[in-house]
Design a protein that fits this description.
This protein is an alpha+beta fold. The chain is built from four helices and ten strands. A hairpin with a 4-residue loop joins strand 5 and strand 6. The longest helix is centred in the first third of the chain and has 11 residues.
């Protein structure tokens, strides 16, 4: 396990302006590992927000800036992170949120299925990003929108990797990463 994680980190996280997110379930121990890096080049002042459990929501911790949760986890074990992608058309009737969607999801949802249902209920689609959700049961997905169609990429072989290109259609741009190409073929 340690050697696999080391190889993935070395291959995926070489010098670049790419965010990388890795979700892995160790089937021998049942432990779940999540690793990410944020190569965000805008001039922001990032911080970690810790919000205790209350009547208004689950306890949660997220990383972000300007009241925007880029990635985080809640007390129920729901994890999320997002990565910028090439611009895509979103479905009619859906909107790219102009609010703290990550905090909303972490405060109310406990599982991947609940997070996906929340996004559908609120008619949320991301025009310039995709999002990964993982939970304490080992369920994980990447949700992205390509040419106005929602695509859900599920965990495969106990692992899921996301960076700054669209997994469902790598021809849309930002696809220089050989490590991801090999992962998709396995």
């Amino acid at each position: 396990m340690k050697s696999l994680l080391t190889i993935v980190v070395l291959l995926v996280c070489k010098a670049s302006l790419a965010c990388s997110v890795f979700y892995y379930v160790d089937v021998k121990t049942g432990k779940i590992y999540v690793a990410n890096n944020e190569d965000y080049w805008y001039n922001v002042k990032p911080y970690i927000q810790i919000i205790p459990k209350s009547k208004k929501g689950l306890g949660r911790l997220w990383y972000g800036w300007n009241n925007f949760a880029q990635g985080g986890i809640n007390e129920a074990g729901l994890f999320f992170d997002g990565a910028t992608t090439p611009d895509q058309e979103i479905p009619k009737g859906y909107a790219d949120p102009n609010r703290n969607l990550g905090d909303e999801i972490l405060s109310t949802c406990k599982t991947v299925d609940e997070a996906m249902a929340y996004m559908e209920e609120k008619k949320v689609a991301l025009k310039k990003a995709h999002i990964m959700f993982g939970d304490r049961t080992g369920n994980a997905v990447v949700i992205e929108w390509i040419d106005g169609v929602k695509k859900v990429v599920p965990i495969h072989n106990h692992q899921l990797v996301m960076t700054n290109f669209l997994l469902s259609d790598t021809t849309k741009g930002n696809y220089p990463c050989n490590a991801i190409r090999q992962w998709k073929q396995d």
